[in-house]
Amino acid sequence: MSKKIIAVTGATGAQGGGLARAILADPNGGFAVRALTRDVNSDKAKALAKLGAEVVAANVDDAASVKKAFAGADAAYCVTFFWDHFSPEQEKAQARNLAMAAKDAGLKHVIWSTFEDTRKWVPLSDNRMPTLQGKYKVPHFDAKAEADVYFTEAGLPVTFLLTSFYWDNFIFFGSGPKKGPDGKLALTFPLGDKKMPSIAAGDIGGCAYGIFKRGSEFIGKTVGVAGEHLTGAQMAAELTKALGQPVSYNAVTPDVYRSFGFPGADDLGNMFQFKADFESMYCGHRPLALSRELNPKLQTLAQWLAVNKDRIPLS
Length: 315
Ligand SMILES: NC(=O)c1ccc[n+]([C@@H]2O[C@H](COP(=O)([O-])OP(=O)(O)OC[C@H]3O[C@@H](n4cnc5c(N)ncnc54)[C@H](OP(=O)(O)O)[C@@H]3O)[C@@H](O)[C@H]2O)c1
Prior knowledge:
This protein is α/β, with parallel strands linked by helices. Helix content is 41%, strand content 18%. A 7-stranded parallel β-sheet has the order 3-2-1-4-5-6-11, sandwiched between helices. A 3-stranded mixed β-sheet has the order 7-10-12. Helix 3 runs parallel beside helix 4 (88-105) and helix 7 (201-213) packs across helix 12 (288-294).
């Protein structure tokens, strides 16, 4: 029997890369990878080809290129790239291109990597957090949620995937422990004593593979995934064990976090506040048992740290 082709956006990155590797590691699973990249000659693209992926050129900003890349596929994993441009409008345009291409190709299953529309819980009139870019509370969440409609209005067989904070952010996103003026390491989040769903980024792709493998079961449904639900203090305790030196949890207020001034600090400050203020809803949307059922290789933070602790920059 011929394999079902899953077109994977972001295949050289975190989420799509995890999915591509999960499919390629299961040669008898009945699925093949079509990896989308802007540069088929990059080292990451070549590495995927070497593992057995079909690698094709596409840019999600270019509708025609996505249409061409999805043609002849059976399914697609759709993710957009907010932190490359910080623009909700561009993110929505990217999502629209993906949905239109999926429709054009007549795909049988699409997973759209999305988030909650935070304005359902924190309307723009709610001053607990600032309104950003005129009409958003958490732009990189709200834009993805607004884009859900492109997939539903196109009548696509879609699964909405709610993802979680990556532990990889400790390595790549500047969210890891930092030395304070006292020379001691501290992990800074505005989460108070609340739990936040978090995950090894690559494990999101493993969960997505589990969804594809279960056929039509999750079509029309929203599925949330996480590796663990942890407080800042629990994350700091795991980092302390793994790094072999004390890491404290520095629970700042959302206002202080927003004032840090790095690009996106206001968006992320609002995001963490949303997660903390609506802890039980937000964790409830990302059940651990289902995540593990979909991806039996799902890691805990301790397991992820055992492999990745030396990659976390501590200076
Ligand atoms: N950081 C977190 O904790 C977190 C958690 C949950 C969700 N998210 C969301 O995850 C999304 C990003 O996904 P990710 O983390 O998997 O991305 P990523 O690791 O940054 O990788 C993105 C990959 O996509 C490709 N890409 C970038 N722009 C593209 C474009 N215009 N057209 C086609 N391909 C493009 C790049 O590959 P090439 O260079 O090969 O083209 C890159 O390797 C963001 O929207 C973010 O909001 C982040």
